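Record pair follows.
FIRST:
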Amino acid sequence: MGFFKEMYRDMAIDVGTSNTVIFISGAGIVLNEPSMIAREILTNKVLAVGHEALALHEKIHPGVATIRPLVNGVIADYESTKDLVKGLIRKTKTHFGFGIRNLVISMPSGITAVEKRAVRYFAKNVGAKNVYMETDIMAAAFGLGIRIEEPMGNMIVSIGGGTTEIAVISLGGVVSSESLKLGGINMTNAILDHFRKAHNLVLSDLRAEEIKLELGSAYKTGNEQTMTVWGMNVESGLPASQEIGSETIREVLSPIINQIITGIKKSLEVLIIKPEIAIDIYKHGLYLVGGGSLIPGIDKKITEETTIPVLLCEDPQTVIARGMGEILQNLKNRRDIYTN
């Protein structure tokens, strides 16, 4: 019986709008790939998931569709989400046995009861015997090594692909929170809109993402850069190029970053009746995680607008999955998140 027990795995999955991260107990982070699936439209056959699906994106013929099955952190296409995660799990088969004994899965704090049921049902249908659900913010707290049970106010801001989660936690619970339906994908879309309106150029999603990574910033860096961007001219219908600078891209991203900062301020305003928690945050700073925390200068921008120090962490894109890995090791103490 011990042999068969070892063939089952405990797993944590952070299924995000942009990326999916898988953690396996005893192995750590084993996969971090785009949350994208490619299908044949006529047969509905899955052609690729993850990196392979992204490689096909925008280079496909009309008989193939690429899909991001999550929108703003919640399941928008149930079957595609299930097939995506099953396909990604199969990629980890060198770490995988007969099935999943315990599965911890994360979810945005702002989802509805119906959306939460969809996550639970999906988790059971990927083959998990026992399902545990935790919010992104609480999982991030574990990943950051925060001692959440202590009477200490901590603020965590998680900027993901489709959502931004903002929460203040103390004594193991959430004191105040904001869940914004915007993130890295909105920044990419803002760049697409800018080129269409300002330069009559249509760009691919991948090209806009490249511009965001190369030129994107939230604060003047003193090292302004430029790059030449190619796209399709709307008027002529021919390929055309446009030089763009980091200062312009910073202005394009600014409205979205300002919305995030407004959300942070709202979470702090709620603490007017709990000033000691607010003082803890002002003394010790807020934690910034998620892919959006990699935007150069975003920590300085937040500090300038709120006067709160910002703490960055190593590998912020996997901190939620690492936190769920911590939960996996202590499931006996987290029966409150058991959903079966």
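SECOND:
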Amino acid sequence: MAIRFGWDLGGVNVKLARVEDGRVASVTQIPCPALTEPRKFDLAVEEALGLVGDSNASHAVTMTGELSDVFASRYEGVAYLVGLMRKAVGDEVRFYSLGGFVDAHGAVTGWQGVASANWHASAALAATVEESGLLVDAGTTTTDIIPFKEGRPCAAGRTDGDRLTEGELIYRGVVRTPVMAIASQAPFKGRMQGLAAERFATMADVYRLTGELPEDADPFPSADNRAKDLEESAARLARMLGRDAEDADIVAWRALAHFLARRLLDQVEADARAVIERDDLSLEAPIVGAGCGRFLAVALAGRLGRPYRDFADLTPCAEEAQEMVSRCAPAVAVAQLA
């Protein structure tokens, strides 16, 4: 049996996909410990290695963790993570680059093509199945909007900075993003009012109240380190308005959550429309949804009147692995493309 592992080294999670004879058998997400030093990656990778076992497998790696503030620069981050994976799984490990897979030496010397290239891998795999489309990967922290056409990604941006400029990367997600990053005003009791510029609540609170967030999608401490039930989520949103949860009923707090959820979807829609028009994607080109927040992609497809495809539908996988295949698209992609 041919076994390949795909790794996506993020600053918050390490994701590991196992592919057996071309079929995704399992996908695991391991949170990085909350440390302010690079060792957090070592610990997460060490835990992941326990799932790898002693199999004679090949390994492919992509990353975004080099952007973590535990590193002084992105180059330092790439070099550290390359060295870590070479030590962990051997010299034969391959790293995904915008120009194709490279070895450890090529990953360090060509670090600009390796840094935060995971989005490209996901779109490249989607492009092997669909002739054209728009990949929308909504994760805990960011949302990627990546067009692909004629069998390859056709994004205008190459780096995170360029993609932020092009509207292909929105540094907002469905879990960790502070509510203050979504809106500066919101309606309450029939009037618009300002929101606090404080991390009193996150989008995880919003989507818990709208009922859209998967229960296991938020492994992080809440903004106030309290519980993650509906009542505490409402209390955190109330604090954003300088109020207490008792100032309104749960219906009002749910209405506020839906308003904030629409604001994020509005931004995703605006950027998606611009990218679609720029690249002249046909009306039949689907929205491909990935990430724990791909309910945004489903809603976007409805707004745009386009077909929707789940990322897990694009690659052979075990039925029990489908959810995590879609959530951890880059790890799956590098395993399948290697």
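COMMENT: The first helix runs from residue 39 to 52.
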